[in-house]
Amino acid sequence: MKKKRIELLKGDITTLNVDAIVNAANNSLLGGGGVDGAVHKAAGPGLLDECKGLNGCQTGQSKITHGYNLKAGHIIHTVGPIWCGGYKDETELLALSYQSSLRLAKENKFKTIAFPGISTGVYGFPKDLAAIIAINETKRFINKNPYPEKVIFVAYDDEGYEIYKKLLNQ
Ligand code: ADP
């Protein structure tokens, strides 16, 4: 049987034992709230030191660091767009965030990476639209590339989990 390349989990992304977790960072890459705060707290101060040398990150782009105290070997920091009603290229920018993260996973030959719902917290992106973009971009990428072998979508709550479950079962 063909191995499943997309998985869905509910919980805290910082606990996962994968090659890389993706962090929903901001342009400074110097930490913030939500998943970003949780990642920095769990990884420890070495992460902030490395991030200080990265010179920030543009929206839609991604940069990679070590995982420090995480079980994950690396962290891919991507900056999703702030939702402004859909008038500021938000859908394209969110797609770019997924593409640039997946590209880094490919370049590093990562077998398994995990994504939170980029932009769906403080940045206010509608969760269902964000999940459609996340799934479409991931399917498109893995159909063309051997790495990453597996992509895990991590929902933090029941609502997010149900949105992904419905879309993935279609
Ligand atoms: P953004 O600023 O990109 O919106 P947030 O961190 O505010 O980023 O939220 C992104 C998503 O990550 C939200 O759906 C939120 O529920 C989820 N989230 C927050 N903490 C965690 C965590 N520890 N693990 C997985 N997902 C998380």
In a nutshell, what does this entry contain?
This protein is an alpha/beta fold and 170 residues long. The chain has five helices and six strands, in the order E-E-H-H-E-E-H-E-H-E-H.
What does it look like?
The structure is a single chain. With 170 residues, this protein is α/β, with parallel strands linked by helices. The chain has one domain (3-168): Leucine Aminopeptidase, subunit E, domain 1 (3-Layer(aba) Sandwich). The protein has helices at residues 34-43, 45-52, 90-107, 127-144, 158-168; strands at residues 6-10, 20-24, 62-66, 74-78, 112-115, 150-155. A six-stranded mixed sheet has the order 1-6-5-2-4-3, with helices on both faces. It starts with 5 loop residues before the first strand and ends with a helix. Adenosine-5'-diphosphate (ADP) binds next to helix 1.
Proportion of residues in β-strands: 15-25%
Task: List how many beta strands DSSP finds.
Answer: 6
How are the strands of the biggest sheet laid out side by side? Answer: 1-6-5-2-4-3
Give, in order, the helices and strands. Answer: EEHHEEHEHEH
Distance between the termini: 20 Å
Number of helices: 5
Give the name of the CATH architecture: 3-Layer(aba) Sandwich
CATH topology: Leucine Aminopeptidase, subunit E, domain 1
Q: Provide the CATH superfamily.
A: Leucine Aminopeptidase, subunit E, domain 1
Summed up, the domain count is 1
Low-confidence stretches: none
Give the class from helix and strand content and strand pairing: alpha/beta
pLDDT averaged residue by residue = 97
Largest sheet: 6 strands, mixed
Helix content: 25-40%
What's the CATH class, please?
Alpha Beta
Bound molecules: adenosine-5'-diphosphate
As a whole number of angstroms, the C-alpha radius of gyration is 15 Å
Q: Write down the overall geometry.
A: globular
